[in-house]
From TrEMBL, chain A:
Name of the featured protein: Pyruvate dehydrogenase E1 component subunit alpha
Pfam families tied to this protein: E1_dh (PF00676)
Keywords per UniProt: Oxidoreductase, Pyruvate, Thiamine pyrophosphate
Highest taxon above the source species: Eukaryota
E.C. code: 1.2.4.1
Species assigned in the record: Dissophora globulifera
Domain Dehydrogenase E1 component: 78-374
Protein function: The pyruvate dehydrogenase complex catalyzes the overall conversion of pyruvate to acetyl-CoA and CO(2).
InterPro entries attached to this UniProt entry: DH_E1, PDH_E1_Alpha_Subunit, Pyrv_DH_E1_asu_subgrp-y, THDP-binding, TPP-bd_CS
PANTHER family xref list: PYRUVATE DEHYDROGENASE E1 COMPONENT SUBUNIT ALPHA, PYRUVATE DEHYDROGENASE E1 COMPONENT, ALPHA SUBUNIT BACTERIAL AND ORGANELLAR
Name of the gene: PDA1_1
UniProtKB/TrEMBL annotation, chain B:
Described purpose of this protein according to its UniProt entry: The pyruvate dehydrogenase complex catalyzes the overall conversion of pyruvate to acetyl-CoA and CO2.
Source species: Dissophora globulifera
Principal localisation: mitochondrion
EC number: 1.2.4.1
Source lineage: Eukaryota, Fungi, Fungi incertae sedis, Mucoromycota, Mortierellomycotina
One GO cellular component term noted in the UniProt record for this chain: mitochondrion
SUPFAM superfamilies with a match to the protein in the record: Thiamin diphosphate-binding fold (THDP-binding), TK C-terminal domain-like
Name of the protein described by the UniProt record: Pyruvate dehydrogenase E1 component subunit beta
Length: 404, 376
């Protein structure tokens, strides 16, 4: 399998180069729940990424020196721990038959959404497919609203009407179920940004399986043609359902799929490398004349494709185990934090415990929440106040009249 | 092309078991179908097994038939309908595609123009919307546009209609969509016999045929008649089946909803309310309006039941055709459509329940319709 062979993903070590005073940067820990303002914690740490963190195509790769504060790094840890815990909780709820239908987990892929968010502002927009719980959280969705959505509750982020695949926030456009269809949508969001706010970019995510859809290439062309601030991000977790990348794609170098669009392959198991790549890509996309980019995040999905897939018929248990023990994004950051003396084992344990407590509390709340009101069946078919006079239910006497 | 066929022959004898099966079709049937025997000693088969045996029999009978789609091979099908077929027929006849519906559908249609008989699987019909242009513009119309010079013997199949808890983008019925297209044939099986007979007929048909299966029915077992177990079993496309005879009211339905209609009929008969006739459409296009007309002339009352949306639905079309026929004069009450609610499919269980018809709704509508009298 490509990833295990790739030297990029060998467990990396950050080296502490120096500490420097914090520079004011529009940091975007929008969902960061804790933010210490102590001067020491906010001081930037300059980290040196492993030399194999990036591979570029038709562009110079970003610097391997990364500026991040201790707070920022600790926050990344917390956020990854929370997403992991949330996904494990979803797994349990599904098995307890409290979650219905499809449920796609992102365990193993946490560094992608967390590293990304650390480099964005809320003017920037994000769109992805159905593996969206982590992105929803990072883009401002509360743990409670995500879990309540999974449970089909009124308090869910989509009021119980979307489920696992369809979650949205003001700067996150979902949560989309049709493989590849979100990619031109992302280009369209970038189009609107260029039209309305020239100072923000859109990050459009899709999988290694989705990467072959025709509309991905149609979007590439328009984005380049019209110089859209769109960063296409292929989240290469090595498999599209049961199909390994090399059985679906004639060229598995997804960062080169843009042809006339430069690209960058990123060690997507290293949250700091993801942060650096996204910060660099954002800058690129906003520099007029440079246009779009294609990023490829090399990552790995621990769970099956969805809850009905055990995920072991097309790959070995050993393969999964190997990634888990050598290349887990959370363990990697933890080891780095300890090595850099930014956190002790105790601090890490405390963060893990806090993540668990926060998620557990949210799930208990969500479980007690009510189902959606039955009248909400009729809500949001059209924008409120602009509906048809009535809609029909299953037979003529089931009629919903809108009050206008 | 001959290359493909040669390769297929080479790779299709991997095990002793398969060699055995090949030499003994009866044994093959017994083993492959994993048939079980019910209490009355009849044979039962799930809809999934019935579809699987239809595919296998037709692939065995005609080496121009091949199966193409996402995860149909190594993974044995997302819903396991194609289980075992890769082992039996090899990778040149059971082909895993990338997730590129528009592309592989077009490719399959092209191969049908050039003499093959593709079975093009959509993981679900929701994803065929990526490829609907190739189905409607390329597959359905080319025979006509070419003045009969080009044939397109292709089968498009996959699960259609609402599944459970999968939300708006993965839960909708396309019967009315494809049913409106001249050049296509559209079938919608309910039980295992339907599934086997209609899929086999679709593969043998020289036209593009859309087969609308239902995921929620894949695991359901039904009895299989002796005839249905045969390799020669096909169900004529364009003919509805009277599943249950009755005298007081006619229910016309297709796919999973036939089961709800049957249950409602049974309920009302037990309650002594009415003898309900249930018609399983089987085909959406051609639509067997004659069987419906005949039934209405007998029962004088008609209800249509489907999982799709009401506006421009299969029921709407039936109502219109009944209005245009002599059966109109026989109606004692207005025809009623029972349909999916006119909303995108919601996720939450309590809302989803309200979005699709079930036995209770049908029974309620039957009672109301029986109480009505035109002009009264
Ligand atoms: C157009 C379309 N075709 C097929 C599917 C069914 N499907 C859902 S996810 C998936 C695999 C996608 O793999 P990838 O893009 O690598 O994303 P990942 O699941 O690995 O995150 C498939 C085939 C779909 N949802 N939409
Ligand atoms: Mg993938």
């Amino acid at each position: 399998m490509t990833m295990l062979r790739s030297p990029m993903l060998a467990a990396s070590r950050l080296t502490l180069a120096r500490t420097a005073p914090v520079t004011t940067r529009p940091m975007a820990f929008l969902t960061a729940r804790a933010f210490s303002s102590s001067a020491a914690a906010a001081r930037d740490t300059v980290l040196r990424l492993p030399s194999n963190s990036f591979e570029s195509y038709n562009c110079d790769p970003p610097s391997l020196d990364v500026n991040l504060s201790k707070d920022a790094l600790l926050n990344m840890y917390r956020q990854m721990a929370i997403i992991r815990r949330m996904e494990i909780t979803a797994d349990g709820l599904y098995k307890a038959m409290l979650i219905r239908g499809f449920c796609h987990l992102s365990t193993g892929q946490e560094a992608v959404s967390v590293g990304m968010e650390s480099a964005l502002t809320d003017e920037d927009k994000v769109i992805t497919a159905y593996r969206s719980h982590g992105f929803t959280y990072m883009r401002g969705g509360s743990i409670h609203s995500i879990l309540a959505e999974l449970l089909g509750r009124k308090t869910g982020i989509s009021k119980g009407k979307g489920g696992s695949m369809h979650m949205f926030t003001p700067d996150f456009f979902g949560g989309n179920g049709i493989v590849g269809a979100q990619v031109p949508l992302g280009a369209g969001i970038a189009f609107a940004q260029k039209y309305l706010h020239p100072n923000a970019a859109t990050f459009t995510f899709y999988g290694d399986g989705a990467a072959n859809q025709g509309q991905v290439f149609e979007a590439f062309n328009m984005a380049k043609l019209w110089d859209l601030p769109c960063v296409f991000v292929c989240e290469n977790n090595q498999y599209g359902m049961g199909t390994p990348a090399d059985r679906s794609s004639a060229n598995t170098d997804y960062f080169k799929h843009g042809d006339y669009i430069p690209g960058l392959k990123v060690d997507g198991m290293d949250v700091v490398a993801v942060y650096q790549a996204v910060a660099w890509a954002r800058e690129w996309a906003l520099t007029s004349g440079k246009g779009p980019l294609v990023l490829e995040m090399q990552t790995y999905r621990y769970a099956g494709h969805s809850m009905s897939d055990p995920g072991t018929s097309y790959r070995s248990r050993e393969e999964i185990k190997k990634v888990r023990s050598n290349n887990d994004p959370i363990t990697r950051l933890k080891e780095q934090l300890i090595e850099l003396q930014l956190a002790s084992e105790e601090d890490i344990k405390a963060m893990d415990k806090a993540a668990r407590a926060e998620v557990d509390k949210a799930v208990e709340l969500a479980k007690k929440d009510p189902e959606p009101n039955v009248d909400s069946l009729w809500e949001h078919v059209n924008v409120k106040g602009t509906e048809a006079p009535f809609l029909r239910g299953r037979e003529p006497s089931e009629r919903h009249h809108y009050n206008r | 092309m001959s290359n493909i066929l040669k390769k297929a022959a080479v790779v299709s004898i991997p095990t002793v078991r398969q060699a055995l099966l090949r030499s003994n079709p009866l044994l093959a049937n017994a083993l492959l179908a994993k048939r079980s025997y019910n209490s009355k000693n009849g044979v039962e088969m799930t809809v999934r097994e019935a579809l699987n045996s239809a595919l296998e029999e037709e692939m065995r009978a005609d080496d121009k038939v091949y199966l193409m789609g996402e995860e149909v091979g190594l993974y044995n099908g997302a819903y396991k309908v194609s289980k075992g077929l890769l082992d039996k027929f090899g990778p040149s006849r059971v082909i895993d595609t990338p997730i590129t519906e528009s592309g592989f559908t077009g490719l399959a249609v092209g191969s049908a123009f050039a003499g093959l008989k593709p079975v093009c699987e959509f993981m679900t019909w929701n994803f065929a919307m990526q490829a609907i242009d190739q189905i409607v513009n390329s597959a359905a119309k080319t025979h006509y546009m070419s003045g009969g010079n080009v044939n397109c013997p292709i089968t498009f199949r996959g699960p259609n209609g609402a599944a459970a808890g999968v939300g708006a983008q993965h839960s909708q019925c396309f019967a009315a969509w494809y049913g409106s297209v001249p050049g296509l044939k559209v079938v919608s099986p309910w039980n295992s016999e339907d599934a086997k007979g209609l899929l086999k007929a679709a593969i043998r048909d020289p036209n593009p045929v859309v087969v609308l299966e239902n995921e929620l029915m894949y695991g359901v077992s039904f009895p299989m008649s002796e005839a249905a177990l045969s390799n020669d079993f096909v169900i004529e496309i364009g003919k509805a089946k009277v599943e249950r005879e009755g005298t007081d009211i006619t229910i016309v339905s297709h796919s999973r909803a036939v089961g709800f209609a049957m249950a409602a009929a049974e309920l009302l008969e037990k309650e002594g309310v009415a003898k309900v006739e249930v018609i399983n459409l089987r085909s959406i296009r051609p639509l067997d309006i004659d069987t419906i007309i005949k039934s209405v002339k007998k029962t004088n009352r008609l209800i249509t039941v489907e999982g799709g949306w009401p506006q421009h639905g299969v029921g709407s079309e039936i109502c219109a055709q009944i209005m245009e026929s002599e059966a109109f004069d026989y109606l004692d009450a207005p025809v009623v459509r029972v349909t999916g609610a006119d909303v995108p499919t919601p996720y939450a269980q309590n809302l989803e329940t309200l979005a699709f018809p079930d036995t209770e709704v049908i029974a309620r509508v039957i009672k109301r319709t029986l109480a009505k009298k035109i002009g009264a």
